[in-house]
């Protein structure tokens, strides 16, 4: 595929417009790649809950060290909401299960994804699940 043009509403990549199968002016040095990441809310409802992230296919939690409304805003926007009304701490929506993927999350508030925010490093933390971070999103 070459000159791929997706609107973002397609269910599958091959539903996007492109030059046609096998028609291209590419070399292997121009191969495309993508890195997928996922965020979900657990133990609450569609707009509020414990923040969980999927890294390498494994779901885990986010520690509330440095967790604030800027981090919560980013998560809520990533999930399709306008912003957050609060950023509950101390496992307000219950304790998750291992692993704890993120700690010292430092979003400025304008990031498109929680994965664009600074943090200690994947799985690097000194937290326990009683410190799991949560969000309450504005509907």
Summarize the structure.
The chain has 139 residues and is mainly beta.
Number of strands: 6
Number of helices: 1
Strand content: 15-25%
The H-and-E topology, N to C, reads as EEEHEEE
The CATH architecture of the largest domain can be named as Roll
How would you sum up the major sheet? 6 strands, mixed
- Regarding quaternary structure, how should these chains be classified? single chain
Mean pLDDT: 90
- What low-confidence regions span 5 or more consecutive residues with pLDDT below 50? none
Structural class: mainly beta
Distance between the termini: 39 Å
Query: What is the overall shape?
Result: elongated
User: Do you know the CATH topology of the largest domain?
Assistant: Mac-2 Binding Protein
How many structural domains in the coordinates?
2
Alpha carbon gyration radius: 18 Å
CATH class placement of the largest domain: Alpha Beta
CATH superfamily label of the largest domain: SRCR-like domain
